[in-house]
Amino acid sequence: MRFVEFFKVHGNGNDFVFVDDLGGRVSSLVAPSELAVKVCHRRKGIGADGVLLLQDGDGEVQFRMRIFNSDGTEADMCGNGARCFARMLDRLGLEDPKMRFLAGVGVVEAQVDGSLVSLKMGFCPFGDGAFFGVPESGEGVPDGVVMSYLHVGVPHAVLFARSWDIGEEELKVLGRRYRHDGRFPRGANVTFLMPLGGVDGSGGFFARTYERGVEDLTLSCGTGACACAAALLRMGFGSPVRIESPGGFNVVEVEAEPHGARYVLTGPAEVSARGVFYL
């Protein structure tokens, strides 16, 4: 019987199955998209938001990270996933705590420091059609909401309100609607953002993200936290910013330029299990 060895790892509850595919040892047996659908199933598989594949690099760096969502689609970037990938490279002794590896958006840098992993991304263009702080209204949307749209490797819509005092099912309905909104040609991850401890953001911010490819609310989203930080900066808030989520927290430093930004994303990443999955 064929099987795949794996590790289970998560960043703030945003969970992934990590698979060593060096030399094509796994992708020669099963297509990565098919593997992702099978192992990510919460009832019939291991259960995860996505799969992290460790593959050989391009010569400039030794290792490459590929990310497949639970629906089998491949993502160019995932902030929490990349932090988890760095955690695993350190855990397996493949890299020093300070490392570089290839992702869909290019070479990224990471630093493992105790329970925390920091990810330093290069310049990320905001992308065509980006906008910030535009008033938004509609069915189920609270008064005073403003929306931003930008890319952080993947597209994000950030809806900022003083409070999101609605239930989880209502958030899912809104998330599904905006994820497929015609204003976003490739679809979008949708983050509902609000301040904590006062409208000035002195207590940080709280975010819930409906993730494209997972097609559900997740416990945390790293690139979503980065998108929030960029949107907040454009709205007059400062940097760094602490983004709380149901699964934990990320701290984001953002350096904005006219057409994009650079980010440092820091938060916990933990290994929770290892085992084999039968194909």
UniProtKB/TrEMBL annotation:
Protein name (database record): Diaminopimelate epimerase
Binding site for substrate: 14, 69, 79-80, 189, 211-212, 222-223
Pfam families listed in its UniProt record: DAP_epimerase
Subunit structure: Homodimer.
Source organism phylogeny: Bacteria, Thermotogati, Synergistota, Synergistia, Synergistales
Enzyme class name: isomerase
Active-site positions on this chain: 78 (proton donor), 78, 221 (proton acceptor)
UniProt pathway: Amino-acid biosynthesis; L-lysine biosynthesis via DAP pathway; DL-2,6-diaminopimelate from LL-2,6-diaminopimelate: step 1/1
Species for this entry: Thermanaerovibrio velox DSM 12556
Sample GO molecular function, one term: diaminopimelate epimerase activity
